[in-house]
Amino acid sequence: MTNDMTETRARAVLDAISSARSIATFSGGDPDFTLPDAYQVSDAVMTERVARGERVVGWKIGFTNSNIWDEYDVHAPIWGPMYDRTVRQVAAGGEISLAGLCEPRIEPEIAFRLKSAPEIGMDEAALLDCIDAVTHGFEIVQSIFPRWKFKAADTVAACALHGMYLHGELVSVEGDWAGWLEQLAAFDMELARDDVVVDRGTAGDVLGGPLSALRSMVDGMAMRPMSRALAVGDLITTGTVTRAFPVSPGERWTSRLDGLPLAGLDVRFSA
Length: 271
Prior knowledge:
By secondary structure, the protein is an alpha+beta fold. It has one domain (3-270): Fumarylacetoacetase-like, C-terminal domain (Fumarylacetoacetate hydrolase, domain 2). It is built from 8 helices and 14 strands.
């Protein structure tokens, strides 16, 4: 793929996100559009967003839950950056606007804050040693491609479908390293809309656990490096524990965790 094509596709993504409108998939017009091509587009999008004044504050990992792979026809993890304008901490009962998002869906996830940059080949124990805090959040994903129909490369180019990440308190892992290592591989999570449970999931649904999801990204980025690497202080959200669900203004979404010392979230969405 030429540099001009990369820039053209990056501008198309940025225009679609800024105007909250759908566009045709890149793979539909170019069957040879590959994942390496898509990460080049993603990098170009990131470069432009930073030039516009946004700051990268972390990364999202998508499609780590194999239970949803067939639903979306994406069968391996992807990743992309998150920004200071798309990540925020929320208090219980907070209200968040969905304005400016294309076909938003909600995903309950576990995220890590890095105290050191992880390296390729690390196991889960070594990765936990790179983390100083854990949190639970809702990622609001969006699709600029109509009706959530796309190929894996399209999702990468479109900012890994990231809309925003809403998280609760960051809880330190200091003092109970062994306990966190065990709990992060064995917790349960419940997701509810307007007090009705819509789905449940477990740590094992996320590639065997969130630390394993982080490992997949670290190793994958080594093969497809971007111009901005993982850095100290980055918040890494590791993928949905349940299925993803459409979210609409007026709905209240809550989560409950069992097996992790993290509070669930309680968020109401508005237009």
